[in-house]
Write a structure and sequence with these properties.
Layout lengths: L2 H22 L3 H14 L3 E4 L6 E4 H12 L6 H22 L3 E3 H4 L6 H8 L4 H14 L4 E4 L2 E2 L4 E2 L31 E6 L1 H8 L21 E6 L5 E6 L2 E4 H8 L6 E5 L4 E6 L7 E2 H9 L4 H8 L4 E3 L1
Parallel strand pairs: 1-3, 6-13
Antiparallel strand pairs: 1-2, 4-5, 4-14, 7-12, 8-9, 9-10, 11-12
Length: 315
Amino acid sequence: MNRRFLWAAAALAAGPYLGTMAWTGTVRGEEAFYEQQQSAAGKYSVWLDRGAGSYYMDMEEYLTGVTAMQIPADYEPETLKAQAIIARTYIRRQMEAAGTSEIAESALDLDYPEQKQLKEMWGSAAFPAYFEKVEEAVKATEGQLLTYEGELIDPMFFRLSAGMTRQGDFLHPYFQNVDCPEDMEAADFEETMNFSYGEAAAAINSIPEGDAGPRQVSPQDLPEGIQIISRDTAGYVEEIQIGNVVFTGEEIQYALGLSSSCFSVGASEEGLRFAVKGKGHGYGLSQHAANEKARAGWTAEDILGYFYKNISISE
């Protein structure tokens, strides 16, 4: 169902709501309205808790907006299908953890975009075709979920790997190193960022203190005092020492606004130069590599089975 039809349905539902309130004169009339609205939303629903404009939305309809925000709409249909299954699995996993078939949008840390946002993102001319394309991907995969040994997985994804996806921990055995040679051919595979010593030290000193207390570095520690202690099997920095302080690769990534934690660092005329590969955390599905596989004829099922090992697609 398109969102414009949902808005129309909500407007029609307001009639019985106003009548009930006038008749009962109690809050029960309002409760009845929301119960009616929830029932109409479907088996699984999302409560868009947005103040006075809050309302229930069927989860499958909600997925169209979510998928549109998570992946470029000009990607291949099979890539969009894979992303829709990922988004559905994430929402259903959160519902399962909460023991409910409905969940508030604020609990998902997701946003369903308004039509205006999508038009700004895609352009008004492209909006109708792109929205329909994403909507079709959601409809074509309706109800499909990713499971591992009968349990819904944590369906992590990112935009572009550093050439290989990362190995998961014991809670994520379905994340394994898989090669993504397609990512290494992307125009934005690698970027360089430069910082003065003072800028770098200030950003790093904004990282919250660790278990041992405050962790502060000095511009004088740079660059000679920098040592990458360890990398994982995909090349992402696990630990880096600056002066006498140890940080994770992700801490440095976020503090400096790097596109990933797969980086090398050295001196430059400006101060420090970070050469960064990939975009995102590197776990799960690489959207760029997935799309290149779709261009080569892979189906959504093929793509998901490549990036999430030993999983099943169930309904």
